[in-house]
Design goal:
alpha+beta; Tetrahydropterin Synthase, Chain A; 12 helices; 20 strands
Length: about 450
């Protein structure tokens, strides 16, 4: 008896013609199709829409994953038949298992944030606490792994049930990524996209292995400091914008006099007198600067205290990679290592660089490297001396000395030998010796000089 006749024999069961999931909630990841007191009819259709997947589950066993399309549920569908034959009751009883639909589309605009501040060590600010928040996007890449690891037998599984676990892992990975970068806190704003991409590539493989979920995007929207630190930074910025403190003081005094005069009944004679004297002194100082000295007894008013210079800029430390390992060095220290080993492949990286650069492409370093010393002159050729046998004795001498002996005694016969010769040779038959004395004389001698004019 086939499965369909067996199912029909259980007459009280309601047969299903079409099995499908009409999504009406953007936050539902897994939906269990209701099959209680229902049976699958021969020739029924399993409709899986785009962005969905379907899986049959019974007795702890999962069927193949059915992708988008319309699948006929009959003995002609191999994936259906093999699954029913694998479960405990085979084809002898109605199907009492579950059908799960899994949404494989992207779940966007999922919020994340640091529940507690993250402690960092900054070179300029010292120990500092930061907070951050943003959004992330993910999708189900392996529906079977998601069912096994997280869903179990739940009838409905939404983003709220998994986002907490994902957020905790993302915040932990964010703290690791920012801490390992060792980037100044005030420069983090220029690296939001790089930080997000690095964290996505780092954590997505773990999500896939643990939950069957792929992290497709991670966005850092803001990294903030504690309010008290932000106020101090605002004050520091304001001091830089004030410029001349003397002019600023005079401006504030003039505003105070004007505001006091505008208050009816609130005048204080002693205060007005004091403010008038102060204002007069300021005006006098300004006129003195404009008109110059007024005679020998004139004393220039004291100058306003100079505005302190801005704090020194922190020295840039470069991440160094060379044959002697890695380190964080200043430009001068990198230049010294380059000068000691010019042929070695040396690369550096600093905040704002898109990637590692050769040292020669960084002007701050290349300008400190001294020019290379000129190469030494070539060494004179060291020819092997010849063993010679001459009428006046034996010995060893270079080719030039033997040629000199030949020139001094044209009729003498001199034999020579050195490594590589099979036997003694006549010195006049060795080209190296004959060429040692320079070019031969010009045939016929030089021409006669012209007669001296009278």
């Amino acid at each position: 008896m086939s499965i369909w006749n067996t199912l029909k024999a259980h007459g009280k069961a309601q047969f299903l013609d079409v099995i499908q999931w009409m999504e009406d909630d953007r936050n539902t990841i897994v939906y269990r199709f209701p099959v209680f007191n229902q049976a699958i009819q021969d020739g029924a259709k399993l409709v899986v829409r785009e962005g969905q997947a379907a899986i049959f589950v019974n007795e702890g066993q999962l069927s193949e994953v059915f992708g988008p399309g319309t699948h006929e549920i009959s003995s002609r569908t191999q994936a259906i038949t093999s699954f029913f034959e694998s479960i405990k009751y085979g084809l002898n009883y109605p199907y009492k298992g579950d059908i799960f639909f899994v949404s494989t589309r992207r779940f966007t605009d999922q919020k994340w944030g640091t529940p507690n501040p993250i402690m960092l060590s900054d070179k300029q600010l010292g120990p500092v606490r930061i907070r951050a928040f943003g959004i992330f996007t993910y999708r189900v890449k392996d529906p079977a792994a998601l069912l096994r690891e997280l869903v179990g037998n739940q009838g409905l599984f939404t983003t709220e049930e998994i986002n907490g676990q994902l957020k905790r892992k993302l915040v932990s990975a964010f703290a690791d990524t920012v801490g390992e970068a060792r980037m100044p806190v005030l420069e983090l704003a220029a690296q939001y996209m790089d930080i997000g991409d690095a964290l996505r590539d780092k954590i997505s493989p773990k999500f896939e292995a643990d939950f069957g979920i792929q992290l497709t995007d991670f966005v850092v929207e803001n990294i903030s400091l504690p309010p008290e630190v932000e106020k101090m930074l605002d004050k520091r910025t304001s001091m830089g914008l004030l410029g001349d403190m003397g002019q600023y003081t005079a401006f504030q005094a003039a505003n105070a006099i004007e505001a006091n005069a505008a208050k009816p009944g609130a005048a204080n004679p002693m205060m007005d007198a004091g403010m008038g004297l102060a204002m007069g002194g300021l005006v006098g100082q300004q006129l003195g600067r404009a008109l110059g000295p007024q005679g020998p007894g004139y004393a220039a008013p004291p100058a306003y205290p100079a505005v302190p210079p801005p704090p020194p800029v922190a020295e840039v430390r470069y991440h160094y990679q060379g044959p002697d390992g890695q380190a964080q060095l200043s430009a001068a220290e990198v230049a010294a290592r380059v000068a000691a080993n010019r042929t070695a492949p040396i690369h550096v990286w600093a905040a704002g660089f898109p990637a590692w650069k050769p040292w020669a492409e960084v002007p701050e370093i290349a300008g400190l490297v001294p020019p290379a010393a000129p190469p030494p002159p070539p060494a004179p050729p060291a020819g092997e001396p010849f063993h010679f046998h001459a009428p006046d004795g034996q010995g060893q001498a270079p080719a030039g000395e033997i040629k000199r002996r030949l020139d001094a005694s044209p009729g003498a016969r001199i034999l020579v030998w050195k490594t590589g010769f099979a036997d003694w040779k006549d010195a006049r038959e060795v080209p190296e010796i004959m060429a040692a004395g320079g070019p031969p004389p010009i045939p016929g001698g030089p021409p006669a000089p012209p007669p001296f004019p009278r």
